[in-house]
């Protein structure tokens, strides 16, 4: 019977995982440990180190158990290891930035350090569960390290149990996993360990969703799942370029393909490209794995998925430039959204970062607003030069960030940025041109402003306060072109041509060539 579980690493995986384990298994004591004291302090406060919908609620519910509270966050790593039956490795495995495999391979230094500590301090048999994304074969490395540093003759069973949660829906994904993969040795003790872990998950997960396999298969499943998902998005984004060139609509194409049940409609949203902690590093790790196995055509195949993602981002930046008459020097461009996707404060590999840098390099002044990302984080990420910093400002409301802008770019699919759907609700638009070149408008929808109904930003007032011509670039295809055009702006999305695009396509499609950009 499992009595105590420790999660090593209080990051995006360990924190939510430990919380959900404690929530679903009141009789198991769960400790989340980390050597970063500030992060642990934050977990122990009301100001959690990350934003995840529902997370603070379930932490509060577990804490309400008072004396029976079975969740703790601590820096006492050694103590937690000694006391635990199961130790879950939730440690970051960033892409290596030095030496062999730099920029591609996963860096296992932190994992190996934690494994050494487990081997050194363990005074009984332990089950070690690899939750972090690792290159295949890591369970054998962990096993070897544990046995080499251990001072006793304890049985260490290493399981691979990759975590498939997505940021922004971590709690829901942990409470309702699509599957739980457990990779174990095909020995009696390996299978017993897998069964112990499966029994923990069965407390809230239907047993048919728990799948066991060998360790290599489990490890590869994680890289493969993320690579396949990233490939889908790169595929739809590649088609979006064709749509823009020929006048087709990527949303229709995605719908047509997605309604085939063999393809399915998920992860087919065309946009600025994928970011985050997992897709970029896992695709790179798969490429590196294939390359190191001498499978060059396999490596080349996955490398194109990565390239397509980078290409999508620079293509969009070029499109902004060409639509704005090939010159954004001295113009004000507002970027709405800095997180790599909605419902998270994470900015890792966010397409907004590259976009902001590229637009700054072109001489634009950049205003940025994101509902969750801190000002300090944005400044750190953009990493602007002294000269560029004078052209970069972060705002705490979308309205202020967009005031006086020449263009607004939606870079993250936050719900609050979405426009009201005007399909069933006709709008009346009266546009009056002000003396400063700005427009004042009166957008009505049966007397009600949609912003108040949707809780979203007030696009009418944003467009009203922009310079003319006012451009809205929709990097996530979440805006209603017809509605925005009714406000008097020029709408440009990804993978489809708006009314304005169609009118000017012939002329401005030539702009990148004219300005020597391609
Ligand atoms: C991903 C996997 O989904 C998850 O299973 C794995 O455990 C970790 O990696 P995550 O990185 O949190 O999760 O985000 P996800 O929702 O998959 O989105 C990744 C990126 O793709 C985001 O930048 C998002 O904006 C983009 N995306 C997603 C698209 O561009 N189009 C889509 O249709 C879906």
Concise synopsis of the structure shown:
The chain is α/β, with parallel strands linked by helices and 518 residues long.
Task: Kindly describe this structure.
The protein has 518 residues and is of the alpha/beta class. It has 2 domains: 4-205, Rossmann fold (3-Layer(aba) Sandwich); 229-507, Rossmann fold (3-Layer(aba) Sandwich). Helix content is 43%, strand content 14%. It has 21 helices and 16 strands. The protein has helices at residues 14-24, 37-43, 55-63, 77-83, 109-121, 138-149, 170-175, 188-202, 215-246, 250-258, 279-292, 296-323, 351-361, 375-382, 386-389, 398-402, 450-454, 459-464, 481-486, 499-508, 511-514, and strands at 4-8, 29-33, 71-74, 86-89, 126-130, 156-160, 180-183, 210-213, 332-336, 365-369, 392-395, 407-410, 428-433, 439-444, 471-474, 490-492. The chain has a 6-stranded parallel β-sheet, with helices on both faces. The chain has a 6-stranded parallel β-sheet with strand order 11-10-9-12-15-16. Strands 7-8 form a two-stranded parallel ribbon. Helix 1 (14-24) crosses helix 3 (55-63) and helix 9 (215-246) crosses helix 11. The longest helix is centred in the middle third of the chain and has 32 residues, at 215-246. The radius of gyration is 25 Å and the shape is globular. The termini are far apart. The structure holds uridine-5'-diphosphate-xylopyranose. Uridine-5'-diphosphate-xylopyranose (UDX) binds at residues 163-167, 226, 229, 233, 267-269, 271, 274-276, 278-279, 340-341.
